[in-house]
Every structure is written in structure tokens, then in C-alpha cells.
Amino acid sequence: MKIMRVEKALVSTNRVRELGHRPLLVVREKNGGTPSVAVDAIGCIPGDWVICVGSSAAREAAGSKEFPSDLTIVGIIDHWQES
């Protein structure tokens, strides 16, 4: 699991059918870090600190072992101070 911050929504109208209508969000581990794309399984907004899972856990969290995701948001952190 990783702690990441949601930066913005990512609009992708052309995508594989298996993604369905799940929102995609740009997330980053730390300021200046490399941005990643995560499937939003819970309903986040930009600025939220979130818990993300990867690999097979990401696919299951998004809804299916066949889901094409390697990063899925599974929780919103209520209180977090970036160190």
C-alpha cells in the first residue's frame, strides 16, 4: 500500500471496455515525484490523501481479477501531514 495525493481527474474517452466508467485520477506519492494514474474505487476529489494498492490487489479492489489496473485507490485518509 502507498500513501498518495490526488492531483486531478484524468479524462480518457477511448479506453478498453473492461475499464467501464470507473474514474481515473492522477496521483503522486510526494511533491516532485512521478505522477501515476489510479482507478478511483471510492469517490475522491483533488487534494485528498489516499491509500492505494497495486498489483493483483489493485485489480480485485477495482472489482475483478480481470480488471486492467495496477493502481487502485481503496481509502481516503482523514488526517495526514506530509513529512
Short description:
With 83 residues, this protein is mainly β.
Overall description:
This protein has 83 residues and is mainly β. Helix content is 10%, strand content 39%. The protein contains one helix and five strands. The chain has one helix spanning 55-62; strands at 2-10, 24-28, 35-40, 49-54, 71-76. Strands 1-2-3-5-4 form a five-stranded mixed barrel. It is globular and about 40 Å long. The two termini are 17 Å apart. The mean pLDDT is 86.
Please outline the major beta sheet. 5 strands, mixed, barrel
Along the chain, the helix and strand elements come as: EEEEHE
Question: How many helical elements?
Answer: 1
- Total beta strand runs: 5
Strand content: 35-45%
The parts where pLDDT drops under 50 for at least 5 residues are none
Helix content: under 10%
From the spread of the alpha carbons, the general shape counts as globular
Q: Radius of gyration over alpha carbons?
A: 12 Å
Structural class: mainly beta
Strand line-up in the sheet with most strands: 1-2-3-5-4
The N- and C-terminal alpha carbons lie at a distance of 17 Å
Mean pLDDT, all residues = 86
